[in-house]
Amino acid sequence: MTTNFDVKARTWDTPEKAERAQAVADLIRSKVKLTRDMSGFEYGCGTGLLSFCLRDELGQIALADSSVGMLEVVEEKIQAAGATHMNHLQLDLMEEAAPETPFQLIYSMLTLHHIDDTDRILQIFHSMLSEGGYLCVADLNKEDGSFHSGEFHGHHGFDQQQLKSTLERIGFTDVDSEICYSIEKEVDGKARSFPVFLMICRK
To answer: Which terminal CB of the chain, N or C, has fewer other CB atoms within 10 Å?
Structure first.
């Protein structure tokens, strides 16, 4: 990832980001029957905004990120909330082994476009899920590169149909997606909207 998330961690939680996380969470719970028997895994959790939106409806939740700064904020939130069923771990799945415990729900929000090898990370997610488990990926629709200012080496969003085909090739089924939010940004002095989709599938 090219953004210094350690530096940005303390100022990361803005009303817009909280609203975005809530929109993604609302669509997840409308599509997936969440229960306290389900274990959850959020990859690229940042400050845990999405997991905290879902925490009352899931069992054990692991929040994973490679940023120490973000995880420090996560731990403070967990302690403040007394959320004993939540734990964080510093993890880069492209460099380190995945947790052995299978999960019933894996989810990420605006993380996939930072990962160069999309196929590999999706294959890893598939291996981490229990049979019948759900993968929920929220990310940017394909865009022209205007979303990230400065130097950026990730993906400029995703074509939903192409991503669906990739997931099906890996072995996921029941792949479905829809737009759940729009990020408003000023680019070169002009207001721009960048749609965010949520793609849900099953192992």
So the answer is: N
For residue 186, which phi and psi values (nearest 5 degrees)?
A: -95, 125
Single pTM value for the model:
0.93
- Residue 8: φ, ψ to 5°: -85, -10
Question: What's the pLDDT score for residue 7?
Answer: 64
Q: How many CB atoms lie within 10 A of CB 170?
A: 18
User: How many CB atoms are closer than 10 A to CB 123?
Assistant: 15
φ and ψ at 40, to 5 degrees? -120, 150
- How deeply is 88 buried, as exposed, middle or buried, from its count of CB atoms within 10 A (0-12, 13-18, 19+)? buried
The architecture in CATH of the region 5-202 reads 3-Layer(aba) Sandwich (3.40)
3-class secondary structure, 26: helix
Write out pLDDT tens, residues 116-157.
999 999 999 999 999 999 999 999 999 998 898 777 888 999
List beta partners, residue 190: 187
